[in-house]
Specification:
The chain is of the alpha+beta class. The protein has 2 domains: 132 residues, no CATH class; 40 residues, no CATH class. The protein is built from 6 helices and 11 strands. The strands form 3 sheets. It has a 4-stranded antiparallel β-sheet, with no helix packed on it. The chain has a 4-stranded antiparallel β-sheet with strand order 3-4-9-8. Strands 5-6-11 form a 3-stranded mixed β-sheet. The longest helix is centred in the last third of the chain and has 17 residues. The radius of gyration is 17 Å and the shape is globular. The model has no long low-confidence stretch (mean pLDDT 93).
Length: 177
């Protein structure tokens, strides 16, 4: 079956499982959605993800701060690697895992992830809920959830600390009071 894997690493001809499952076994994460794979071209140092594949097969992205999509993906380049693999479904919808290396059948260079995501929005494969469209209740819940996570996360790398201080100053302050 055809799957995709987004990476900022260029020149890959084989994808190897480098992530680990809860038991420490290596895994390679794949998706059957090209549109969803674009969201994996994110900055791994901040690793902030607010999207997933819904039952309708579309990638649904929610902004938690103004212009989040543009801020996180504009001018981010990378590769979407297409593979044919025997992968098993993961507990997260739209994600599949493979436990062995797979050959890349087609690399797709993405010069600007934001532009590529905008094209997928026009095709209807990505749905974005803009920050301004969120209700006050949704925003309060997001902020409460994020502050709770920040309290329980333990020490974060400096890049993540700076990210949360910049885009979620009230949550950061609430988590560190």
């Amino acid at each position: 079956m055809k799957f995709y894997h987004g990476s900022t690493e260029s020149g890959l001809t084989v994808l190897c499982p480098v992530s680990k499952d809860k038991d420490g076994h290596p895994l390679l994460y794949l998706t059957d959605s090209f549109a969803y794979s674009l969201f994996y071209l994110r900055d791994r140092k901040t690793d902030f993800v607010t999207c997933g594949l819904a039952a309708d097969g579309k990638a649904h992205y929610e902004e938690w701060f103004p212009n989040q999509l543009k801020t996180l993906y504009e001018r981010r380049s990378g590769w979407i690697y297409e593979v044919n693999a025997n992968a098993e479904p993961h507990r997260i919808r739209g994600i599949h895992v493979c436990r062995e290396a797979v050959a890349v059948t087609q690399p797709h260079y993405i010069e600007d992830a934001y532009c590529a995501i905008q094209n997928e929005i026009k095709k209807g494969t990505v749905i974005v809920r803009a920050f301004e469209e969120a209700s006050q209740e949704q925003l309060r819940q997001y902020q409460a959830d994020l502050a709770a996570w920040l309290r329980s996360a333990g020490p974060l790398p400096i890049e993540k600390q700076n990210f949360y201080r910049t885009y979620f100053p009230a949550c950061w302050k609430q988590a560190h009071e």
